[in-house]
Amino acid sequence: MQMRLMLLGGGNALGQALIRLGAEEDIGFLAPRPPESGWDAASLTHLLDETRPDALVNLAYYFDWFQAEEVCETRLTLQERAVERLAELCKHHEIRLLQPSSYRVFDGSRVTAYSEKEEPQPLGVRGQALWRLEQSVRATCPRHVLLRFGWLLDESSEGRLGRFLARAERDDALLLADDRRGNPTPVDDAARVILAVLKQLDCQSPLWGTYHYGGHEATTSLGLGQAVLSEARNFRGSLVEEVAAQAHAARPDAGDEPQHAVLACKKILHTFGIKPRAWRAGLPSLLDRYYRHV
């Protein structure tokens, strides 16, 4: 790798997965420790003026964007301002910017898979913030790659998977939507995709734009939950037995979570040669890491 790579958010689950995978291929990241209050416009300005990497992966707000149950609007607004400034700095210093985004930019009304050509119509404040971030990056920083991911799964105890597994140990029964669909995507797989994109950018390929990635084989929330429980029983015997179907409309998060969140991944395959991997294959190592830390 000829480019000097910077990673914001090296301490979170996706950042750690990216560092692990990079180390296997002798690819290193400059991963600065964030200020106590987190990255903001001023600290980012100082950082990039001093370091000037060739490419930057922005996972600074990964947990809030992809794993938190809910995020307050004020917090998201501050993060938007920071990313706006980051995009300006990347343009000024000619830094390639890889910015993650999410299926949440869509409203979930489309039954078939969403391609990059579909017009976003986000539902909740998080989806709306991510859509504004995308627009800001596109308008400001020409040399960018926006990567929209499906249902990201990581080993953090407070994340999507961790909250589900905690309920599976605590509750007598679980209700999961059988009419809500998406692409489960373990963080190791997401890290593989980010690294593959960086390698091609290192070859000076001007492949800027927006791309979708999600694990192979779309499924329902119910199907994902059943698969996770089946694998988790290899680590814990006392998990909930009763898992019942519930309509998406009856779920407490129906107003924020898109019902249909399947992403079409043809563009990233045709452009970068990145093939979707089966998400089920990533569950054993993901759950192993989760149970080693709880």
From TrEMBL:
Kindly report, in one word, the top-level EC class recorded for this enzyme.
oxidoreductase
The reaction(s) annotated as catalysed by this protein in its Swiss-Prot or TrEMBL entry are: dTDP-beta-L-rhamnose + NADP(+) = dTDP-4-dehydro-beta-L-rhamnose + NADPH + H(+)
Pathway in which the depicted protein is active: Carbohydrate biosynthesis; dTDP-L-rhamnose biosynthesis
Pfam families the record matches: RmlD_sub_bind
Q: Which cofactor does it need?
A: Mg(2+)
Which family does the similarity line name? Answer: Belongs to the dTDP-4-dehydrorhamnose reductase family.
Specify the protein name: dTDP-4-dehydrorhamnose reductase
Specify the species. Answer: Pseudomonas taeanensis MS-3
Native organism taxonomy: Bacteria, Pseudomonadati, Pseudomonadota, Gammaproteobacteria, Pseudomonadales
